[in-house]
Amino acid sequence: MVRKLYGLLANPVAHSKSPVMQQAAFAALSYDAVYVPFDVQPEMFATAVAGLRAINVAGFNVSMPYKQRIMAYLDEVDEDAQTLQSVNTVVHQNGKWLGYSTDGLGFWRSLPAGKYSRVVILGAGGAARAIIATGLQQAGVSEITVFNRVSMNFTEHATDLRHLADIELQDLADESNLAKALQQADLLVNTTSVGMRDATSPLTREQMALLSDQATVVDIIYRDAPTTFLELAGQRPKQNGLPMLIAQGAASFEIWTGMQPNIAVMQRAVKKG
Ligand code: ATR
């Protein structure tokens, strides 16, 4: 048996939890593989990808800023990943490189069991699009409302969203619209980077109070200290970005190995760092 090589292509890559998480998952199943982070500069991307081909890598993850760029180098791209124009998982199978996106699947698999009929999403970037595209395929989801600040990206986000899901992007500053959506929401998700590094929140305390007590609140930001957004969610069911991170990694692991990883092992590895 030849030891298999997996890796992560990103820039920067140092902060990523994937290496420790995947390595622990391999070890738990005595799967003879190593997972290495590769910090690839944009001008070296094509060379790095050619190198991975040459050394017969078994598979890899792709993260910022290469999730779209990798697509041109793949033999086949899964339909959902094609729709999203985003690939985070590549597997080498029968001499071919196949690309998938596990971000949206990871998000929905990570949620506590329940019915999420009306969904409100804050932010309209890559993560939001993955969550929305998979969300449309979830049984029980009847409506997804998406809010973004009016920035120089608004028109582009709005066009992308219309094409992806036939959803009209809403202005986060439109108070009455936002209030209505929050009052009806079963699930509220922050996909913006607001609160990642400081104590800011994309919603005020008053806005958060409009949610029902049963509404589930998810912040896809993962950090050790709770975000202000999740603090404002109070006693409602809530989770941070860790379960999504683990579930998308678990989905990649399944694609590579055909086996179910041990989620608890992955969780412990990420928490330990
Ligand atoms: P990701 O892949 O994590 O989704 P992204 O595609 O860069 O990252 O998207 C980031 C999202 O956070 C966008 O919706 C972005 O809004 P803009 O495109 O208008 O910047 C949102 N975001 C980032 N900083 C924000 C802020 N200070 N206030 C509100 N939204 C913010």
Automatic annotation (TrEMBL):
<comment type="function">
    <text>Involved in the biosynthesis of the chorismate, which leads to the biosynthesis of aromatic amino acids. Catalyzes the reversible NADPH linked reduction of 3-dehydroshikimate (DHSA) to yield shikimate (SA).</text>
</comment>
<dbReference type="Pfam" id="PF01488">
    <property type="entry name" value="Shikimate_DH"/>
</dbReference>
<feature type="binding site">
    <location>
        <begin position="123"/>
        <end position="127"/>
    </location>
    <ligand>
        <name>NADP(+)</name>
    </ligand>
</feature>
<dbReference type="GO" id="GO:0004764">
    <property type="term" value="F:shikimate 3-dehydrogenase (NADP+) activity"/>
</dbReference>
<feature type="active site" description="Proton acceptor">
    <location>
        <position position="67"/>
    </location>
</feature>
<comment type="pathway">
    <text>Metabolic intermediate biosynthesis; chorismate biosynthesis; chorismate from D-erythrose 4-phosphate and phosphoenolpyruvate: step 4/7.</text>
</comment>
<dbReference type="GO" id="GO:0009073">
    <property type="term" value="P:aromatic amino acid family biosynthetic process"/>
</dbReference>
<keyword id="KW-0057">Aromatic amino acid biosynthesis</keyword>
<keyword id="KW-0521">NADP</keyword>
<feature type="binding site">
    <location>
        <position position="79"/>
    </location>
    <ligand>
        <name>NADP(+)</name>
    </ligand>
</feature>
<feature type="binding site">
    <location>
        <position position="222"/>
    </location>
    <ligand>
        <name>shikimate</name>
    </ligand>
</feature>
<dbReference type="InterPro" id="IPR011342">
    <property type="entry name" value="Shikimate_DH"/>
</dbReference>
<dbReference type="InterPro" id="IPR046346">
    <property type="entry name" value="Aminoacid_DH-like_N_sf"/>
</dbReference>
<dbReference type="GO" id="GO:0019632">
    <property type="term" value="P:shikimate metabolic process"/>
</dbReference>
<dbReference type="InterPro" id="IPR013708">
    <property type="entry name" value="Shikimate_DH-bd_N"/>
</dbReference>
<comment type="subunit">
    <text>Homodimer.</text>
</comment>
<feature type="binding site">
    <location>
        <position position="63"/>
    </location>
    <ligand>
        <name>shikimate</name>
    </ligand>
</feature>
<keyword id="KW-0560">Oxidoreductase</keyword>
<feature type="binding site">
    <location>
        <position position="103"/>
    </location>
    <ligand>
        <name>shikimate</name>
    </ligand>
</feature>
<dbReference type="InterPro" id="IPR006151">
    <property type="entry name" value="Shikm_DH/Glu-tRNA_Rdtase"/>
</dbReference>
<protein>
    <recommendedName>
        <fullName>Shikimate dehydrogenase (NADP(+))</fullName>
        <ecNumber>1.1.1.25</ecNumber>
    </recommendedName>
</protein>
<dbReference type="InterPro" id="IPR022893">
    <property type="entry name" value="Shikimate_DH_fam"/>
</dbReference>
<dbReference type="GO" id="GO:0050661">
    <property type="term" value="F:NADP binding"/>
</dbReference>
<feature type="binding site">
    <location>
        <position position="88"/>
    </location>
    <ligand>
        <name>shikimate</name>
    </ligand>
</feature>
<feature type="binding site">
    <location>
        <position position="248"/>
    </location>
    <ligand>
        <name>shikimate</name>
    </ligand>
</feature>
<feature type="binding site">
    <location>
        <position position="220"/>
    </location>
    <ligand>
        <name>NADP(+)</name>
    </ligand>
</feature>
<dbReference type="GO" id="GO:0008652">
    <property type="term" value="P:amino acid biosynthetic process"/>
</dbReference>
<comment type="similarity">
    <text>Belongs to the shikimate dehydrogenase family.</text>
</comment>
<keyword id="KW-0028">Amino-acid biosynthesis</keyword>
<dbReference type="Pfam" id="PF18317">
    <property type="entry name" value="SDH_C"/>
</dbReference>
<feature type="binding site">
    <location>
        <position position="241"/>
    </location>
    <ligand>
        <name>NADP(+)</name>
    </ligand>
</feature>
<dbReference type="GO" id="GO:0009423">
    <property type="term" value="P:chorismate biosynthetic process"/>
</dbReference>
<dbReference type="Pfam" id="PF08501">
    <property type="entry name" value="Shikimate_dh_N"/>
</dbReference>
<dbReference type="InterPro" id="IPR041121">
    <property type="entry name" value="SDH_C"/>
</dbReference>
<dbReference type="InterPro" id="IPR036291">
    <property type="entry name" value="NAD(P)-bd_dom_sf"/>
</dbReference>
<feature type="binding site">
    <location>
        <begin position="16"/>
        <end position="18"/>
    </location>
    <ligand>
        <name>shikimate</name>
    </ligand>
</feature>
